[in-house]
Protein backbone atom coordinates (compact mmCIF):
# COMPACT_ATOMS: atom_id res chain seq x y z
CA UNK A 1 0.00 0.00 0.00
CA UNK A 2 1.37 3.44 -0.96
CA UNK A 3 1.21 6.07 1.75
CA UNK A 4 0.58 9.60 0.53
CA UNK A 5 1.87 12.43 2.71
CA UNK A 6 -0.82 14.91 3.66
CA UNK A 7 -0.73 18.21 1.81
CA UNK A 8 0.56 20.98 4.05
CA UNK A 9 -1.80 23.90 4.48
CA UNK A 10 0.11 27.13 3.74
CA UNK A 11 0.67 29.32 6.78
CA UNK A 12 -0.31 33.01 6.68
CA UNK A 13 3.34 33.98 6.08
CA UNK A 14 3.61 31.42 3.27
CA UNK A 15 0.48 32.84 1.65
CA UNK A 16 1.91 36.37 1.84
CA UNK A 17 5.17 35.17 0.29
CA UNK A 18 3.27 33.49 -2.54
CA UNK A 19 1.33 36.68 -3.25
CA UNK A 20 4.42 38.90 -2.90
CA UNK A 21 7.50 37.41 -4.61
CA UNK A 22 9.66 40.39 -3.61
CA UNK A 23 12.65 39.64 -1.39
CA UNK A 24 15.94 41.08 -0.14
CA UNK A 25 19.16 39.11 -0.53
CA UNK A 26 22.51 39.84 1.12
CA UNK A 27 25.60 39.44 -1.07
CA UNK A 28 28.73 39.00 1.03
CA UNK A 29 30.79 37.35 -1.72
CA UNK A 30 31.94 39.34 -4.74
CA UNK A 31 31.72 36.37 -7.11
CA UNK A 32 28.01 35.95 -6.38
CA UNK A 33 27.35 39.48 -7.69
CA UNK A 34 29.02 38.97 -11.07
CA UNK A 35 25.89 37.49 -12.74
CA UNK A 36 23.99 40.69 -11.88
CA UNK A 37 26.50 43.08 -13.44
CA UNK A 38 24.25 44.06 -16.34
CA UNK A 39 21.18 44.50 -14.12
CA UNK A 40 23.22 46.57 -11.63
CA UNK A 41 24.50 48.85 -14.40
CA UNK A 42 20.95 49.34 -15.69
CA UNK A 43 19.89 50.56 -12.23
CA UNK A 44 22.87 52.96 -12.08
CA UNK A 45 21.21 55.21 -14.66
CA UNK A 46 23.19 58.22 -15.87
CA UNK A 47 25.88 58.17 -13.14
CA UNK A 48 29.00 56.15 -14.09
CA UNK A 49 30.22 56.02 -10.47
CA UNK A 50 27.19 53.96 -9.44
CA UNK A 51 28.03 51.20 -11.89
CA UNK A 52 29.21 47.71 -11.00
CA UNK A 53 32.40 48.35 -13.00
CA UNK A 54 33.51 51.21 -10.73
CA UNK A 55 32.24 50.05 -7.35
CA UNK A 56 33.26 46.40 -7.49
CA UNK A 57 36.74 47.30 -8.77
CA UNK A 58 36.97 49.66 -5.79
CA UNK A 59 36.02 46.73 -3.55
CA UNK A 60 38.71 44.48 -5.01
CA UNK A 61 41.30 47.25 -4.50
CA UNK A 62 40.33 48.60 -1.07
CA UNK A 63 38.39 45.90 0.78
CA UNK A 64 41.12 45.31 3.41
CA UNK A 65 39.43 43.53 6.36
CA UNK A 66 35.95 44.87 5.61
CA UNK A 67 32.94 42.73 4.69
CA UNK A 68 30.91 43.08 1.51
CA UNK A 69 27.33 43.98 2.44
CA UNK A 70 25.43 44.52 -0.81
CA UNK A 71 21.66 44.16 -0.50
CA UNK A 72 19.77 43.19 -3.63
CA UNK A 73 16.00 43.63 -3.87
CA UNK A 74 14.29 41.18 -6.20
CA UNK A 75 10.84 40.87 -7.71
CA UNK A 76 10.92 37.20 -8.57
CA UNK A 77 14.20 36.79 -10.43
CA UNK A 78 14.42 40.44 -11.48
CA UNK A 79 16.83 42.76 -9.64
CA UNK A 80 14.86 45.97 -8.99
CA UNK A 81 16.94 47.60 -6.27
CA UNK A 82 20.42 47.55 -4.78
CA UNK A 83 22.20 48.98 -1.74
CA UNK A 84 25.95 48.94 -2.62
CA UNK A 85 27.42 48.86 0.88
CA UNK A 86 30.18 47.23 2.87
CA UNK A 87 30.42 46.62 6.61
CA UNK A 88 33.39 48.22 8.31
CA UNK A 89 34.61 46.55 11.48
CA UNK A 90 35.87 49.23 13.86
CA UNK A 91 38.70 48.82 16.35
CA UNK A 92 36.18 49.00 19.21
CA UNK A 93 33.92 46.33 17.71
CA UNK A 94 31.54 48.65 15.89
CA UNK A 95 29.89 47.57 12.65
CA UNK A 96 29.36 50.50 10.29
CA UNK A 97 27.64 50.30 6.90
CA UNK A 98 29.32 52.49 4.28
CA UNK A 99 28.99 52.92 0.55
CA UNK A 100 31.40 51.12 -1.73
CA UNK A 101 33.68 53.70 -3.31
CA UNK A 102 34.01 56.00 -0.30
CA UNK A 103 37.19 57.18 1.42
CA UNK A 104 40.14 58.64 -0.47
CA UNK A 105 38.73 57.64 -3.87
CA UNK A 106 36.07 60.34 -3.28
CA UNK A 107 33.26 58.75 -5.27
CA UNK A 108 30.49 61.33 -5.76
CA UNK A 109 26.76 60.93 -6.42
CA UNK A 110 26.44 57.60 -4.63
CA UNK A 111 22.93 56.43 -3.78
CA UNK A 112 20.83 53.35 -3.16
CA UNK A 113 19.70 52.15 -6.59
CA UNK A 114 16.16 51.33 -7.66
CA UNK A 115 13.97 51.20 -10.72
CA UNK A 116 12.07 54.55 -10.60
CA UNK A 117 8.66 52.94 -10.34
CA UNK A 118 9.83 50.69 -7.49
CA UNK A 119 11.68 53.23 -5.31
CA UNK A 120 9.21 53.35 -2.42
CA UNK A 121 8.80 49.59 -2.22
CA UNK A 122 12.56 49.02 -2.47
CA UNK A 123 13.24 51.46 0.39
CA UNK A 124 10.57 49.81 2.53
CA UNK A 125 11.89 46.30 1.93
CA UNK A 126 15.47 47.37 2.68
CA UNK A 127 14.46 48.96 5.98
CA UNK A 128 12.42 45.92 7.01
CA UNK A 129 15.40 43.68 6.28
CA UNK A 130 17.83 45.99 8.12
CA UNK A 131 15.59 46.03 11.19
CA UNK A 132 15.41 42.23 11.27
CA UNK A 133 19.19 42.00 10.77
CA UNK A 134 19.82 43.80 14.08
CA UNK A 135 19.37 40.55 16.00
CA UNK A 136 21.35 38.33 13.61
CA UNK A 137 24.95 37.84 12.49
CA UNK A 138 24.24 40.52 9.86
CA UNK A 139 23.78 43.15 12.58
CA UNK A 140 24.93 46.73 12.18
CA UNK A 141 25.14 49.53 14.73
CA UNK A 142 25.81 52.57 12.52
CA UNK A 143 25.63 53.80 8.95
CA UNK A 144 27.94 56.54 7.74
CA UNK A 145 27.36 57.82 4.23
CA UNK A 146 29.95 60.36 3.13
CA UNK A 147 29.40 63.34 0.81
CA UNK A 148 26.04 62.35 -0.66
CA UNK A 149 24.05 64.85 -2.70
CA UNK A 150 21.55 66.52 -0.37
CA UNK A 151 18.55 65.49 -2.45
CA UNK A 152 19.74 61.92 -3.18
CA UNK A 153 16.33 60.34 -3.58
CA UNK A 154 16.78 56.79 -2.36
CA UNK A 155 19.11 57.38 0.58
CA UNK A 156 16.72 60.08 1.74
CA UNK A 157 13.82 57.63 1.58
CA UNK A 158 15.75 54.91 3.41
CA UNK A 159 16.83 57.38 6.12
CA UNK A 160 13.25 58.62 6.52
CA UNK A 161 11.88 55.10 6.96
CA UNK A 162 14.65 54.21 9.42
CA UNK A 163 13.81 57.30 11.50
CA UNK A 164 10.24 55.99 11.70
CA UNK A 165 11.79 52.91 13.34
CA UNK A 166 13.33 55.18 16.03
CA UNK A 167 16.78 55.28 14.42
CA UNK A 168 18.73 58.48 15.10
CA UNK A 169 19.63 60.45 11.98
CA UNK A 170 22.46 63.00 12.06
CA UNK A 171 23.50 65.16 9.12
CA UNK A 172 26.33 67.60 8.55
CA UNK A 173 27.32 69.69 5.57
CA UNK A 174 29.95 68.22 3.24
CA UNK A 175 31.89 69.55 0.25
CA UNK A 176 29.79 70.86 -2.63
CA UNK A 177 29.85 69.27 -6.06
CA UNK A 178 29.83 71.74 -8.96
CA UNK A 179 27.99 71.38 -12.27
CA UNK A 180 28.14 73.53 -15.37
CA UNK A 181 24.99 73.38 -17.50
CA UNK A 182 25.78 73.59 -21.20
CA UNK A 183 23.82 75.44 -23.91
CA UNK A 184 23.42 74.15 -27.44
CA UNK A 185 26.22 76.18 -29.02
CA UNK A 186 29.67 77.47 -28.13
CA UNK A 187 28.55 81.03 -28.87
CA UNK A 188 25.73 80.71 -26.35
CA UNK A 189 28.23 79.40 -23.80
CA UNK A 190 30.52 82.38 -24.34
CA UNK A 191 27.56 84.65 -23.68
CA UNK A 192 27.11 83.13 -20.21
CA UNK A 193 30.59 84.26 -19.19
CA UNK A 194 31.60 87.67 -17.89
CA UNK A 195 32.86 90.19 -20.43
CA UNK A 196 36.46 89.92 -19.18
CA UNK A 197 36.38 86.12 -19.11
CA UNK A 198 34.84 86.00 -22.58
CA UNK A 199 37.68 88.18 -23.85
CA UNK A 200 40.25 85.88 -22.23
CA UNK A 201 38.61 82.77 -23.74
CA UNK A 202 38.62 84.21 -27.25
CA UNK A 203 42.23 85.32 -26.91
CA UNK A 204 43.35 81.82 -25.87
CA UNK A 205 41.39 80.21 -28.70
CA UNK A 206 42.70 82.54 -31.41
CA UNK A 207 46.31 82.77 -30.26
CA UNK A 208 46.90 79.26 -28.93
CA UNK A 209 44.17 76.62 -29.00
CA UNK A 210 43.26 76.86 -32.69
CA UNK A 211 46.86 77.17 -33.91
CA UNK A 212 49.41 74.58 -34.97
CA UNK A 213 51.10 74.95 -31.58
CA UNK A 214 48.29 73.12 -29.81
CA UNK A 215 46.85 69.63 -30.15
CA UNK A 216 44.17 67.85 -28.11
CA UNK A 217 44.67 64.09 -27.69
CA UNK A 218 41.74 61.85 -26.79
CA UNK A 219 42.20 58.35 -25.38
CA UNK A 220 38.87 56.54 -25.32
CA UNK A 221 39.87 52.94 -25.98
CA UNK A 222 41.77 50.43 -23.85
CA UNK A 223 44.62 50.01 -26.35
CA UNK A 224 45.97 53.54 -25.78
CA UNK A 225 45.27 53.84 -22.04
CA UNK A 226 48.75 52.64 -21.08
CA UNK A 227 50.29 55.61 -22.89
CA UNK A 228 47.71 58.15 -21.66
CA UNK A 229 47.76 57.43 -17.93
CA UNK A 230 51.48 58.24 -17.43
CA UNK A 231 50.87 61.70 -18.94
CA UNK A 232 48.05 62.37 -16.47
CA UNK A 233 50.00 61.00 -13.50
CA UNK A 234 53.15 62.98 -14.30
CA UNK A 235 51.32 66.31 -14.68
CA UNK A 236 49.16 65.70 -11.60
CA UNK A 237 52.06 64.75 -9.35
CA UNK A 238 54.34 67.57 -10.50
CA UNK A 239 51.60 70.12 -9.85
CA UNK A 240 50.85 68.64 -6.39
CA UNK A 241 54.55 68.62 -5.48
CA UNK A 242 54.80 72.28 -6.40
CA UNK A 243 51.91 72.92 -3.98
CA UNK A 244 53.66 70.78 -1.33
CA UNK A 245 50.89 68.17 -1.46
CA UNK A 246 51.12 64.40 -1.82
CA UNK A 247 48.78 63.98 -4.79
CA UNK A 248 46.38 61.07 -5.12
CA UNK A 249 48.79 59.00 -7.24
CA UNK A 250 51.23 58.85 -4.33
CA UNK A 251 49.08 55.88 -3.30
CA UNK A 252 49.99 52.92 -5.51
CA UNK A 253 46.67 51.22 -4.78
CA UNK A 254 44.81 54.25 -6.09
CA UNK A 255 46.93 54.40 -9.24
CA UNK A 256 46.30 50.71 -9.94
CA UNK A 257 42.59 51.03 -9.21
CA UNK A 258 42.07 54.03 -11.48
CA UNK A 259 43.91 52.38 -14.38
CA UNK A 260 41.84 49.21 -14.01
CA UNK A 261 38.58 51.12 -13.64
CA UNK A 262 39.44 53.25 -16.65
CA UNK A 263 40.12 50.17 -18.73
CA UNK A 264 36.84 48.50 -17.71
CA UNK A 265 34.75 51.60 -18.27
CA UNK A 266 36.33 52.56 -21.57
CA UNK A 267 34.97 49.30 -22.92
CA UNK A 268 31.44 50.67 -22.39
CA UNK A 269 32.17 54.28 -23.35
CA UNK A 270 32.26 55.56 -19.77
CA UNK A 271 35.87 56.74 -19.54
CA UNK A 272 38.25 58.94 -21.50
CA UNK A 273 41.62 60.60 -20.92
CA UNK A 274 42.29 63.95 -22.58
CA UNK A 275 45.63 65.68 -22.72
CA UNK A 276 46.66 68.93 -24.32
CA UNK A 277 49.98 69.24 -26.11
CA UNK A 278 51.59 72.65 -26.52
CA UNK A 279 54.67 73.01 -28.73
CA UNK A 280 55.02 69.21 -28.72
CA UNK A 281 54.89 68.78 -24.92
CA UNK A 282 51.91 67.77 -22.71
CA UNK A 283 50.82 70.71 -20.51
CA UNK A 284 47.42 69.56 -19.18
CA UNK A 285 45.54 66.29 -18.79
CA UNK A 286 42.23 65.10 -17.36
CA UNK A 287 40.42 61.80 -16.85
CA UNK A 288 36.66 61.92 -17.37
CA UNK A 289 33.84 59.47 -16.80
CA UNK A 290 31.13 60.52 -19.26
CA UNK A 291 27.50 59.48 -19.26
CA UNK A 292 24.95 59.98 -22.00
CA UNK A 293 24.31 63.55 -20.85
CA UNK A 294 27.18 64.62 -18.58
CA UNK A 295 30.98 64.75 -18.53
CA UNK A 296 32.25 63.95 -15.02
CA UNK A 297 35.73 65.49 -14.67
CA UNK A 298 37.33 63.25 -12.06
CA UNK A 299 41.05 64.10 -11.88
CA UNK A 300 43.49 66.45 -13.61
CA UNK A 301 47.04 67.71 -13.86
CA UNK A 302 48.87 70.67 -15.38
CA UNK A 303 52.51 71.51 -16.02
CA UNK A 304 53.66 73.71 -13.12
CA UNK A 305 56.54 75.08 -15.20
CA UNK A 306 54.22 76.54 -17.85
CA UNK A 307 51.61 78.27 -15.70
CA UNK A 308 52.18 81.56 -17.53
CA UNK A 309 50.70 79.94 -20.65
CA UNK A 310 47.46 79.14 -18.78
CA UNK A 311 47.33 75.38 -19.42
CA UNK A 312 44.37 74.94 -17.05
CA UNK A 313 42.23 77.46 -18.92
CA UNK A 314 43.26 76.00 -22.27
CA UNK A 315 42.15 72.55 -21.15
CA UNK A 316 38.83 73.83 -19.78
CA UNK A 317 38.06 75.58 -23.06
CA UNK A 318 38.97 72.51 -25.11
CA UNK A 319 36.99 70.17 -22.86
CA UNK A 320 33.85 72.32 -22.63
CA UNK A 321 33.83 73.08 -26.37
CA UNK A 322 34.17 69.36 -27.13
CA UNK A 323 31.34 68.49 -24.71
CA UNK A 324 29.02 70.98 -26.43
CA UNK A 325 29.94 69.55 -29.84
CA UNK A 326 29.05 66.08 -28.50
CA UNK A 327 25.62 67.32 -27.40
CA UNK A 328 26.28 66.92 -23.68
CA UNK A 329 24.02 68.76 -21.27
CA UNK A 330 26.53 69.40 -18.48
CA UNK A 331 30.10 69.19 -17.23
CA UNK A 332 30.37 68.10 -13.61
CA UNK A 333 33.52 69.27 -11.80
CA UNK A 334 32.62 67.07 -8.81
CA UNK A 335 33.41 67.79 -5.16
CA UNK A 336 35.56 70.62 -3.88
CA UNK A 337 35.10 74.39 -3.75
CA UNK A 338 38.07 75.40 -5.91
CA UNK A 339 37.55 78.98 -7.22
CA UNK A 340 37.88 78.08 -10.92
CA UNK A 341 34.57 76.19 -10.84
CA UNK A 342 32.50 79.25 -9.97
CA UNK A 343 34.65 81.29 -12.39
CA UNK A 344 33.39 79.12 -15.25
CA UNK A 345 29.79 79.66 -14.02
CA UNK A 346 29.35 76.17 -12.56
CA UNK A 347 26.67 75.96 -9.85
CA UNK A 348 27.15 74.27 -6.46
CA UNK A 349 25.17 71.13 -5.64
CA UNK A 350 24.99 70.80 -1.88
CA UNK A 351 26.13 67.57 -0.27
CA UNK A 352 25.98 66.11 3.21
CA UNK A 353 27.35 63.30 5.32
CA UNK A 354 24.63 61.21 6.96
CA UNK A 355 25.07 59.12 10.09
CA UNK A 356 22.37 56.72 11.25
CA UNK A 357 22.33 54.61 14.41
CA UNK A 358 19.60 52.12 15.31
CA UNK A 359 17.70 52.29 18.58
CA UNK A 360 19.83 49.60 20.22
CA UNK A 361 22.13 49.76 23.23
CA UNK A 362 25.34 49.57 21.23
CA UNK A 363 23.99 51.91 18.58
CA UNK A 364 23.13 54.55 21.18
CA UNK A 365 26.57 54.19 22.78
CA UNK A 366 28.24 54.77 19.42
CA UNK A 367 26.00 57.78 18.78
CA UNK A 368 27.03 59.25 22.13
CA UNK A 369 30.72 58.77 21.37
CA UNK A 370 30.35 60.29 17.90
CA UNK A 371 28.37 63.28 19.21
CA UNK A 372 30.96 63.94 21.91
CA UNK A 373 33.81 63.83 19.38
CA UNK A 374 31.94 66.26 17.12
CA UNK A 375 31.29 68.67 19.98
CA UNK A 376 34.94 68.58 21.09
CA UNK A 377 36.11 69.18 17.51
CA UNK A 378 33.74 72.14 17.10
CA UNK A 379 34.81 73.57 20.45
CA UNK A 380 38.48 73.23 19.49
CA UNK A 381 37.90 75.01 16.16
CA UNK A 382 36.01 77.80 17.91
CA UNK A 383 38.79 78.14 20.49
CA UNK A 384 41.43 78.46 17.78
CA UNK A 385 39.35 81.13 16.11
CA UNK A 386 39.37 83.21 19.29
CA UNK A 387 43.14 83.10 19.74
TrEMBL record:
Pfam families: Acetyltransf_6. This is BioF2-like acetyltransferase domain-containing protein. Gene3D superfamilies: 3.40.630.30. Transmembrane segments: none annotated. Residues 195-341 form the BioF2-like acetyltransferase domain. InterPro entries: Acyl_CoA_acyltransferase, BioF2-like_GNAT_dom.
Amino acid sequence: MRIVAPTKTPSPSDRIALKNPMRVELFSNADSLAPYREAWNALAGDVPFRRYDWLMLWWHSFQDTHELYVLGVFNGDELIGLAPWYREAGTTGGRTLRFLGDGDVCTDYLDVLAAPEESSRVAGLLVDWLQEALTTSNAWDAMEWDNLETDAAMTGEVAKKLSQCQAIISKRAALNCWRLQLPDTWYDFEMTQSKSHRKQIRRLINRVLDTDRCRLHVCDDETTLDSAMPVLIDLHMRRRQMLDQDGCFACQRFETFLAEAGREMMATGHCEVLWLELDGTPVAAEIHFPSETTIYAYQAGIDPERMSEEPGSLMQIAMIRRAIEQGKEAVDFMRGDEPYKAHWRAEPRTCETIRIVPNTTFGLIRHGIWTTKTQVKNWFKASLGNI
